[in-house]
Amino acid sequence: MIYLELFWTFFCIGAMTFGGGYAMLPLIQSEVAARWGDFIPAEMMIDFVAVSESTPGPFAVNMATYVGSEMGGIFGSFCATMGVVLPSFIIILIVAKCYDRFRQSKLVKGCMSGLKPAVVGLIGNAVLTVFMTVFFSAGLTLSVFTTASFYVFAGVFVLMLLLAFKKVHPIIIICLSAAIGIAVGYLGI
Fold first, then answer.
1. Long-range CB pairs of 82-85, under 8 A, 24+ apart, other chains included
2. Which pTM was predicted?
3. pLDDT per position as a tens digit, 51-109
4. Where do the domains of the chain lie?
5. Could you please report the per-residue DSSP string of 83-105?
């Protein structure tokens, strides 16, 4: 039963989300919390995001695979991954078949221009949700500003932002972030 539930949950997520993995994050978080919140606490979702982001491949697929693995082992990860990928596969087949015919349609152009700001909003929501879970999981208090981990986060964030604006290759930024995180974790900060 868990396999069918994993497949169906991620099938619905894959079918109802536009804009890629980060736009899916709020929906994944709410669905996982609603269905398996007893098994997967909110703090564990942050670990899912970190692992999904740091492994090769599309974020949404990695996230579905990880959640599926936690809930149902190898076959659970297969079911969740197939669930999240199948809607996009079906939709892209239909779009590829019909796109030439509807490319100039005002309805299609309007739909696409309406989806862009919605996707930006969903990605912003995902960033804010992860930020709030990491730093304000116990509620919105000023005590978070007295912890060393907040200032380490702020320093790494600013450094990575500067490197990104200087057009440093993303792989270097990811490796540097990982190295700093390992060092900070080793030092116990």
1. 82/7, 83/6, 83/7, 83/8, 83/9, 83/10, 83/11, 83/13, 83/14, 84/10, 84/11, 84/13, 84/14, 84/24, 84/60, 85/14, 85/61
2. 0.57
3. 777 778 788 888 888 889 988 899 999 999 999 999 989 988 887 888 777 777 888 77
4. 2-139, 147-189
5. HHHHHHHHHHHHHHHHHHHHTT-
